[in-house]
Specification:
With about 270 residues, the chain is mainly alpha-helical. Helix content is about 70%, strand content about 0%.
Length: about 270
């Protein structure tokens, strides 16, 4: 979710550093066994596992959803700065503006609000809709967004479930080839090793790529929902003409006690 400022791209280095750390651990382990890391590379196995996983996923989802996969994965590499204090300060400023200029005074602030959800919420305020209709509209928008996110997250979970099975299928295919070449015992060891690489690739894709990406997108989606709930709380408070200080306190209840500007009698975590 974009904040109320202009969107800037920031790379989420954790999404890159995590797989890199895991691959380094695998390479280091192979070296400890006095084996060459190149022995873990087999293009045919990679194509079989990745192609089979993509094909099975394509069957599971409509084409219009499947073709968005690159965009979905790219979202996991974007570190969007969802700073709740940006939204809190904006709502407090708008609440103060209403006390002096009324609802129409909010129109002066629309050009500086670039987040579409926040902008739509302020327009509903300016148009004078009752709180019940504003709440229904914004919560419906919020839920539909979360629903779309769940579809994409589930698609990555589906890929995580298919890739180990594709790896096992590749191993079986490789073992069939081995069984058909028992006349040359010297080739059995290397052939079996290559066959088992597909199982390795399937496991790595599932637990190092698809599942982590799914979890990252789930976290980002939940973070966005929290920010939107915070915005809804602020908009409703403004619509009830509540004091800016009360608007701040209502919005800060969505934050941990240590982040709030007003005193709380809780343990700080």
């Amino acid at each position: 979710m974009n904040n109320s400022g202009k969107e800037t791209f920031h790379l989420d280095f954790a999404t890159l550093a995590g797989p890199f750390l895991a691959v380094c651990a695998i390479v280091f382990t192979v070296n400890l066994e006095n084996e060459s890391p190149a022995s873990l590379l087999n293009l045919a196995s990679i194509i079989l596992v990745l192609g089979g996983t993509l094909g099975a996923t394509m069957v599971s989802y409509p084409l219009k959803t499947f073709i968005k996969l690159p965009v979905i994965i790219w979202q996991a590499f974007k570190a969007e700065k969802n700073d709740p204090f940006v939204h809190i300060e904006l709502m407090v400023k708008l609440a103060d503006k209403i006390r002096t200029s009324g609802l129409l005074g909010l129109e002066d602030h629309l050009p500086e609000i670039h987040d579409l959800f926040t902008r739509n919420a302020i327009i509903l305020l300016i148009d004078g809709f009752p709180s019940e209709q504003i709440l229904y509209t914004l919560e419906n928008d919020n839920e539909r967004t979360a629903q779309r996110h769940r579809v994409y997250i589930n698609m990555l979970n589906t890929m995580a479930s298919y890739s180990p099975a594709m790896g096992m299928a590749g191993t079986i295919v490789g073992l069939i080839g081995v069984m058909g070449n028992l006349s040359d015992p010297s080739q059995l060891g290397p052939s079996v090793a290559v066959a088992f690489l597909t199982t390795l690739y399937g496991t790595l894709l599932s637990n190092l790529v698809f599942s982590p990406l799914s979890n990252k997108l789930k976290y980002k989606s939940e973070e966005e929902q929290l920010i939107r709930d915070l915005i809804i709380e602020g908009v409703l408070a403004i619509n009830e003409s509540e004091h800016p200080r009360l608007v701040r306190q209502k919005m800060e209840t969505f934050l941990s006690p240590s982040q709030r500007s007003f005193p709380v009698f809780e343990n700080k975590f």
